[in-house]
Write a structure and sequence with these properties.
GO terms for molecular function: ATP binding; ATP hydrolysis activity. This is ABC-2 type transport system ATP-binding protein. Involved in beta-(1-->2)glucan export. Transmembrane domains (TMD) form a pore in the inner membrane and the ATP-binding domain (NBD) is responsible for energy generation. Pfam families: ABC_tran. InterPro entries: AAA+_ATPase, ABC_transporter-like_ATP-bd, ABC_transporter_ATP-binding, ABC_transprt_ATP-bd_su_PQQ, P-loop_NTPase. This protein has 258 residues and is α/β, with parallel strands linked by helices. The protein has 2 domains: 138 residues, 3-Layer(aba) Sandwich (Rossmann fold); 68 residues, no CATH class. The protein is 36% helix and 24% strand. The protein has 8 helices and 10 strands. It has a 6-stranded mixed sheet with strand order 6-7-8-3-9-10, sandwiched between helices. A 4-stranded antiparallel sheet has the order 2-1-4-5. Strand 7, helix 6 and strand 8 form a beta-alpha-beta unit. The longest helix is centred in the C-terminal third of the chain and has 18 residues. Bound molecules: adenosine-5'-triphosphate. Adenosine-5'-triphosphate binds next to strand 2 and helix 1.
């Protein structure tokens, strides 16, 4: 990973975070950093711990071990300041399908305490960012799944967050819609300087300029630029690197040292 300029506070810092459900360890001493203006692909198979990590970052679950900071604000101690900088697109559907796109966004703006006049300006901006301006008055239920995803992204951007988390945002989308959404969010990170953490099990969603985090059974196995992760594991491409890293970890689990 590129070093931080001294003045640049990380968008997200996860510092030695662990989480258990009863006896099951879901996250084991996880540390990772997301820089502003960077696109980070959090790669993990089912059960890797991606959703658990997102639940801790968003305070759905209490952080029992370790620390999480958003632009330097500790999520546990200073949640208001930390969460005001955060936008989230969860796996589950977040829109009311019986009302229009604009009504959904007005409702979300009201939840964030944004006054109606300002909300209208922000809604125009976010719809433009996801190329959905012409659908503002449509009932959400009439949109395709890909278009709904774009509106969910617009909704997450409404309060102008500087860090955006997306949990498996392309589930259920066809190849074209997937590529479009990836492209939109990559552009947001580049053009607007938003730090993005994009959780997926789809290896081909990681692109050449991205940072990659490999999470497997609650452990971070690699974190860095895509080229660096591939190079360090002696692999030919990211798929090969992922298979080598997770295969070696599984082997170690079967044959613990000592
Ligand atoms: N509420 C819960 N109670 C008990 N175990 C849980 C609970 N939620 C998750 N787990 C376990 O914690 C581990 C991590 O799950 P998590 O949902 O965070 O993974 P994930 O990477 O998001 O997977 P997926 O892609 O399938 O959603 C798994 O072993 C899972 O079975």
């Amino acid at each position: 990973m590129k070093p931080f300029p001294l003045a640049q506070v990380p968008a997200l810092e996860i510092d030695r975070v662990s989480h258990r459900y009863g006896a099951r360890v879901a996250l084991n001493n996880v540390s990772l950093t997301v820089r502003p203006s960077s696109f980070n692909v959090l790669l993990g198979l089912n059960g890797a711990g991606k959703s658990t990590l997102f639940s801790l970052i968003t305070r759905l679950y209490a952080i029992r071990s370790g620390q999480i900071r958003i632009f330097g604000h500790d999520v546990a101690r200073d949640p208001g300041a930390a969460l005001s900088k955060l936008g989230v697109v969860f796996q589950s559907r977040a829109l009311d399908i019986d009302i229009s796109v604009r009504q959904n966004l007005m409702y979300h703006a009201a939840l964030h305490g944004i006054a109606s006049k300002r909300a209208k300006e922000l809604i125009a901006q976010v719809l433009d960012r996801v190329a959905m301006t012409d659908r503002a008055l449509d009932r959400v239920g009439n949109l395709s799944i890909g278009q709904m995803r774009r509106i969910e992204i617009a909704r997450a951007l409404l309060h102008q967050p500087r860090l955006l988390l997306l949990d498996e945002p392309t589930v259920g989308l066809d190849i074209k819609a997937r590529a479009d959404i990836l492209d939109h969010v990559r552009r947001l990170s580049m053009v607007e300087g938003i730090g993005v953490l994009w959780a997926t099990h789809l290896i081909d969603e990681a692109g050449a300029g991205d940072d990659v985090v490999v999470l497997h059974k609650g452990n971070i196995l690699a974190h860095g630029g895509l080229g660096e992760v591939v190079g360090k594991s002696g692999a030919s491409d990211l798929r090969d690197a992922f298979n080598r890293l997770t295969g070696a970890a599984d082997q170690e689990e079967r044959e613990p040292a000592g």
